[in-house]
């Protein structure tokens, strides 16, 4: 892969693609981002990703760097220049570069960077087959997790703590003992009665684009769904547990804090959802 990035109007080899040292993304995490999958040459769910970015920017009072049509062209051009058909597009908008001052500088222009990295679908498929382990971590994030902010310190610390325990993902748990979401994923369980449960997006979690697609697919398959919070204890007693995100599709969890989930193997519900999600991606 040739690795070309887009930075504020220019397409450059990644090694030469740089932002200003006083970019507020760099100094304050003052920005928002999106991660979008390219599968078999198709940009998956681009419209909802652009809509979520626009919403994050508007909540942060950052102006959009360009309109959606122009942004779509730039994204497609980055993918084309990277000559890839399986990738993760990373798109970040910061408030821009200015002399360091917490308050918003006047007349600042937002910075836009876009990179595109190969996504290893073989590794994703292997994890779908094998399932992954997860471990609980306290959710120490702020109260606006609905915004896809680039400020991710609590997420990366939780992910690292989980990795050091041999887990693929950290399952974040709030002060009431309720699961919120993963450090970079949404979390789902299947109850012993066969109901699919995931936390409601009214509840200070990221409204995942993959989460919405999975809800639509599950409804089409007449699976019972509840959008509500669940405890760690309920998750440990679930017959299935899984994660969703643009970069991991739907990944079965086979052990949570070393307790096996169901029979300790990926269950039938997540398998059916992954199959349907593949069909959905193929149809884009
Ligand atoms: N993460 N929850 C959090 C905290 C996330 O960071 C993500 C995405 C999700 C899933 O959202 P979506 O289905 O729209 O990808 C849920 C991306 C992939 C990342 O940070 O790289």
Q: What's the architecture of the largest domain, going by CATH?
A: Alpha-Beta Barrel
Secondary structure class reads alpha+beta
Most strands sheet: 9 strands, mixed
Q: Looking at this structure, what is the CATH superfamily of the largest domain?
A: D-amino Acid Aminotransferase, subunit A, domain 2
Radius of gyration: 19 Å
Averaged pLDDT: 97
Distance between the termini: 23 Å
Task: Say what the CATH topology of the largest domain is.
Answer: D-amino Acid Aminotransferase, Chain A, domain 2
The kinds of small molecule bound in this structure are: N-(5'-phosphopyridoxyl)-D-alanine
Helices, by number, come to 8
Topology:
Blueprint: E1 4-7, E2 10-13, H1 24-28, E3 31-39, E4 42-43, H2 46-60, H3 68-81, E5 86-94, E6 111-118, H4 121-130, E7 132-138, H5 153-164, E8 169-173, E9 179-182, E10 186-190, E11 196-198, H6 209-220, E12 225-227, H7 232-236, E13 240-245, E14 249-256, E15 259-260, H8 268-282
Parallel strand pairs: 7-8, 7-14, 11-12
Antiparallel strand pairs: 1-2, 1-6, 3-4, 3-5, 5-6, 8-9, 10-11, 10-13, 13-14, 14-15
